Amino acid sequence: NTKGPLRIAFLSFQNNPFWFPVRDGAEAVAQYLKGQKVQVDYTVLGDNLTAEAVVSGIETAIAKKYNGIVVVPIFDGTANVINEAVDAGIPVVNIIAEGATPSKRLLFIGQDARAAGEQIGKFIEQYTGGKGKVGVITGYFGATQHNDRMNGAIDYVKKACPGIQIIGPFENQDKAEVAYSLTQDMLTRYPDLKMVYVTAGGPFGAAKAVTDAKLIGKVGVIGFDHTPENLEYLKTGAMVGLLDQAPFQQAWDGTVRLYNYLVSGKAPEQSVIRVQGTILTPESYAKQSATR
Q: pTM here?
């Protein structure tokens, strides 16, 4: 690094266990880049995911004259402030999820949320045999990524499986306890419920409701992220599938790529890098654990 000391703002959230590997990735890359005269400041924007929190975090980073920003923007309504940062000479890398409105960001690393939803839709078809009731719980109705994951699955199921009835969608704001009570309500109202799909945070809450109702093997929960809480329920069979999006890797790669741009001035060859996820099932998880 011949550019002298560099400061990178890493802006993230913390409202459920998904964010821990994001934090760990940010802290690990901060250690890694320390020797290159780079300071990475990991900042939690709060536990309530809103566009306003993102805007305020980026505005603060602009005011503090950071050299670059890594952020999880999630919502529409964040593109203008990202453009503001770029216009002020501060490149921005988006990771995990961004809004649908294009911005001047340097790079986005994340899943194709709609394709991930369709991948889960196909799993739902396979698990249910194409018929029965499936409950849908999403994180935030205003989050582009959550909507894409939800609609990717629902649109596929509606087209491929006319025998499936969708219950919901309901919103749990990424909270496991809300997923728990929503699932309890569905199990009470629809005793023939076959499956619950949680598009974002807190799927282990739905799995706990299935466990408490002694319905493991009758009702399956599918969701995202290989967090310890989710994996516990995958082990018992309350969760029947988990799709990962490599959050630690996204945090690391996003920051390293931003650093490379800051020192070389060369933009990455691709402006979008897609993270491919595989669905882990109780069977594949058991096999994986046995070979460790």
A: 0.89
Residue 1 tokens read as 């690094």
Domain residue ranges of the chain, discontinuous segments joined by +: 6-111+246-275, 113-244
Instruction: Determine what percent of the chain falls in helix, strand and coil, rounding each to the nearest 5.
Output: 45, 25, 30
Instruction: Please indicate whether the domains covering 6-111+246-275 and 113-244 agree at the CATH topology level.
Output: yes
Level-2 CATH architecture, domain 113-244:
3-Layer(aba) Sandwich (3.40)
pLDDT in single tens digits along all 292 residues of the chain: 667 799 999 999 998 899 999 999 999 999 999 999 999 999 999 988 999 999 999 999 999 999 999 999 999 999 999 999 999 999 999 999 999 999 999 999 999 999 999 999 999 999 999 999 999 999 999 999 999 999 999 999 999 999 999 999 999 999 999 999 999 999 999 999 999 999 999 999 999 999 999 999 999 999 999 999 999 999 999 999 999 999 999 999 999 999 999 999 999 999 999 998 889 999 999 998 887 6
C-alpha to C-alpha distance for 55 and 168, rounded to whole angstroms: 31
Q: Rounded CA gap, 178 and 286, in Å?
A: 29
CATH, domain range 6-111+246-275: 3.40.50.2300
* Pairwise CA distance, residues 148 & 110, whole Å: 13
Strand order in the sheet with 68-71: 38-44, 6-12, 68-71, 92-96, 107-110, 272-274
